[in-house]
Amino acid sequence: MQIKLHNLKRTYGDLHAVNGISLDIPSNTIYGIIGKSGAGKSTLVRLISLLERPDEGEVFFDDVRVDNLQKHSLIERRRRVGMIFQNFNLFSSRNAEQNIAYPLEITGTPKNEITTRVARLLSLVGLEGRGKAPISTLSGGQKQRVAIARALACNPDILFCDEATSALDPQTTHSILALLKEIQRKMSLTVVMITHQMEVVRDACDQVAVLNDGVVVEQGLVTDIFANPSSEVTKDFLSHLVGVDEAAEEPNKMVQWSKKSGAYTLRFRGGTTDQPILSKISRQLGVDFNIRAGGVQKVGDIEIGTMIVDISGDEDTRKKAIESLSQMGVVVEEEESV
Amino acid sequence: MSKLWILVFGATMETLSMVFFSTLFSLILGLPLGILLSATSGEDQGGIIPHPVLNNVLGRIVNVLRSFPFIILMILLFPLSRLLIGTSIGTTATIVPLSIAAAPFVARVIETALKEVDPGVVQAARAMGSTNMQIVRKVLIPEALPSLVSGVTLTIINLIGYSAMAGAIGGGGLGDLAIRYGYQRFRGDIMVVAVVVILVLVEVIQVIGNKISAKLLARR
Questions:
Q1: What is A3-222's CATH number?
Q2: Residues of A in contact with B143 (CB under 8 A)
Q3: CATH class of segment(s) B2-218
Q4: pTM, rounded to two decimals
């Protein structure tokens, strides 16, 4: 199911929580929406999950307008949308299988059908045999698996994940993301992941929109955005991710070739990570690169390298070096602060 | 001696029946009111149909009724008892003012218990397409059940106290026994026995209530 947002706005008092957001979320993909706290993520998810109506703008599911539905059709529509949360929001008065059965109960599914569906869902999320377990006896990852099973109970065509991995440790996050990817493929779902973790976008999403101050500052394929981020917010997210920020923040501790040399962030992509680009250019132009920090990470199937370097030499040679880097497909950003 | 025990036994039965029926009727009156109070509160407090005006009006009415001295309320409600039961004295007649006095208390107890339910859980239920009725019946009440049981326990104990007071103005039961025999006829022994029976009743109800509440929590 394709989701289209057109110029959505939602204001609380003076706060423009969502200030004109338009997005096309294609069918059958995992779409990330990333932003810091206060960027408008929570409001946006409440708007597109039909928990709240926008002040302005429209929401379409497969070209059907859904933001202005009447009470009855709104409830019907919500039943075809799955949602999971940061705090799982499971019913503590019900055990695991009773939680999964809840959406089926409220839609009046016959008892024997509920039993078979719940058993299938439990095995889908890898919790066979834990159906009778009280919620409080489950670990964080298991709770989120129950929540995922519950969200999928009514065969939804959309699954919203609202900070679904933010309360989990890295390992559990990894396994939950793997499960979500597997389920997305199996059920041809449109998955929308709202998060503040770039790791989640990198490891699970096909496309991403970056949110800041209630507007979309950047959107596109995750591989493109990682290789060539255009907004400051995105760059900031990426710098935290590769762990280069620590090194960059303490320039005094770094060995620098020359005070004149600037610091640059280089982003390599795909095939370019395999080549000895720096040493080649170094030989050709007689410049020196001092690598201050760097790393390579997998984004989807593509490798993306990030490096913070100083380039020595006079301004002219530096310029030439940057030019040849760009020719070889490396994105170069100059840091103004140094 | 055996006459004393017959008196005490009869009075205890009267008290138990007053407390049982007034608990039942105060729940019938207070439960919907408590649900309405919690449902109409702000969304940040887990209200499912926020309605500040209605919430305010209901809250005021509940507060006025709760701050009313019980003895005065009972006298004021004599005409209502007469209308419903045909008399304003005796055990059955006392159930009317007892139920009405306890209903606002029950409403607050229910409201507090329901508001303790995690708003995130209510949001999840709503996102899954629950109707308001389904949220109340299948989410709010089951989730709040241990607190609700504690609240009902508290109500019963309060009603035992109130029913003893009602005895002073012809309500029957253990309070009546203590006043008429113990106080007016200088039978200190009857007074002591009546008071001890009331203490035992309160203790037994409290222990049972705690047990049920703990058992419900242990299953989670």
A1: 3.40.50.300
A2: 91-93
A3: mainly alpha
A4: 0.82
